[in-house]
Predict the structure.
Amino acid sequence: MKNAEDWVPDVLGGGYEQLTLPMAPEDPDEPGEIVATLVRRRPRRRLFRRPALHDVDVLYVHGWSDYFFQRRLGTFFTDRGAHFYALDLRRYGRSLRDGQMPGYIRDLRTYDEEISAALAHMGGRDGRRLVLVGHSTGGLVLSLWAARNPGVAHSIILNSPWLEFQFGRLGRAAIAPALDLGARLRPREPVVPTIDLGFYWRAQQESADAADPTEPNPHWRPAEAPPPTMGWLDAVLDGHREVDKGLDLTVPVCVLLSTRSAMPNKWTEELAAADTVLAVDEVAKAALNLGTSVTIERIPGALHDVFLSRPEARREAYARLDRWTRAYL
């Protein structure tokens, strides 16, 4: 294994580097080393003026069946002077090892270890502001972490965060007892029925920008996401219950969402202009439980990852993000 202090060039190129972070194994019999991966990109030095975000460190965390590959998002922050970091959590993306179950976890608090390790390698916090950026499940993970660690983050930006179950509080309550039992008895068993027909992946392909090709690694981000396990989904629903009770965050929070959801059973063009993963209205309602200063930005025509949408929606998402960062950062 590489020395934990060795930053090496990242697969994204363009000045990105990566650092392997050894993690404590939850199961000694699991194959492969348990690691997380921290990716970074530093801003260009400015000779004549100090950029607006010169004292900001950004930490990004991805969602389910995903990893960090959105160069444009990193550039948005580094162009404004911030130091940009992204974390591939254990068993995801750069951190996935042969024989491991992608994304498996039994408790979202386990990710505290890699977040703490990432912050340690990002340097001291003296005089620097920490901005957390989370997509989908990563938005849930970071929101819960910020609530458990008050006073560390300066602000939070959430891109379609998975804050509530697709069928709302009542649907979550209905499946919780059976799921909790299944998670205790068979935590690694897939939840059925969960069928990903690859429509979200296709929508991203149809929205791709030739000027900024992403070309995600199909092994790290398959066209059809693997079915979640009972243990993982039970951990996520535990997180939803915490959000529902209120997290009492006191830092500014920005939540970016599509204006509508579409739950598909066949491909249509409307799927390239909607969130096909989450029930965005349920997420918008749940976002109000995050804290005392929450801005909700609804983006017409946006995908589940609003920054991978078609050009018009993508430009609008970045314009809203720029407006919010100017106001709060």
